[in-house]
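G., the chain you wanted modeled:
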Amino acid sequence: MKNTFLSIGIVLALGLSATVSCKKSDGPPPPNPGGGDTTVNPEPKRDVLAWVDARSNVFGTYGRLNDTTELKKVLDTLKQVGVNGLVVDVKGSSGYTMYPSAIAQQITSMDGKTITPGVDYVGFMIQEARKRGFKVYGSIVTFVEGDGNRQIGTVFDDPDFRSKYETIVCDVNGNRVPVTTTGRNAFVNPAQPAVQERVLNIIKEIATKYTFDGLMLDYARYTDIDADFSDFSKAEFIKYLENKYNDNDAKNMKFPQDIVTTWRTSSGQTLPATTGKYYKKWLMYRCSVIQDFFIKARAAVKGVKADMTFGTYVGAWYTTYYQVGVNWASKDYDPFNDQGVRFDWAYPGYGETGYGEQLDLLMTGNYFTQIRLADNPATASLKYHWWSIEGSLNGGMYITRNKMPLYGSMDLGNVSWANTGEITKAIRYILDKASGGIMLFDIVHIYAPQYNRLKQPLWDAVKNGLNN
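Predicted structure as tokens:
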């Protein structure tokens, strides 16, 4: 089941509708553009991957994939318009899987809709995808184990698991509270060995059970800048400071005040107002946790099937992605010493936390309606602008040093496209620009007009973009 939650920040920033299928993440603050590099992009490929959100397509009101006949029709039409691959949700934000698992509970019904009894949805999707010559990737929601809106999932089923592993966040008053008390989904603490082991076992199970071309991690991150402030993370951070910086006074820190002293809210997001002496090292610690997990996750995939592709989805807005504890750049990129693109949150050595080298492919969410930098006089002279398709693709390939194919991604339904012609233009641009290809989010937006802002089927817009 694909994750369906949004941070309030991205809802306001992109004007998303709560009734629309969505994949997503943290809302960007005001733009902070930079300038400067002349990296030559490799020759683009033409991989066209369509994301298949399980909640919306299988269990959503207007979803069609719980019916095998309708599922086949949708896949046939995808092939006709030019799509050649799928990304299929196999574990969602509830922590439940879309297949029979020995590790997690399988979800077969939600919101009144049920998968056909006896049908292995994931196996059937792979079978049907292969018939059409599609590549097919599996995706998992990595560090979320409970649907906060529905109050279902692993965290809600198991009080002991919840008490040990649910992420602890700071509220605006500096109080440390479980993340679900803030109305969000049940993120778990990525630093916890048991949390990582659960995910790694699911990864190995999927790689063993199914013939996917690759496995994609989604939400492989902290919930936001306000996490994780558990006692466990405090102890691990102290060890990090002692080992990396020989800081023998770290054990005397005031926690969390020496990291974030006071908090504020902006568009529903809790953000630091004033920071303490350990703030930037804390950012690096969190990135090191995620980097370490990616090393393990890659090894888990390759240990089962050496030729299986390993990748991830991230938001393209690198300038604010430090907030979720992720450095998806190459280790060869140093944001602290980059004189052309300035990041005031970077600390000496931050570049060492990059996990780009662990990836066989990367999908970035270029979820903007501004396509070209020249479309706006304010950005026309820039090369990197993280809130436009062109600028964010430039930036993504620059900071990853082209170490892996980068797939530019479009949100077809949650952002306010002016018309279908703009969708077509954006598809054409990404195909020409991105080093790997394009990912279209999500197929439900294409076939169900109720789930896109233009309130019309988008088949022709996609076909025209892919057949230029």
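The two ends are 33 Å apart (CA to CA).

Shout if anything looks off.
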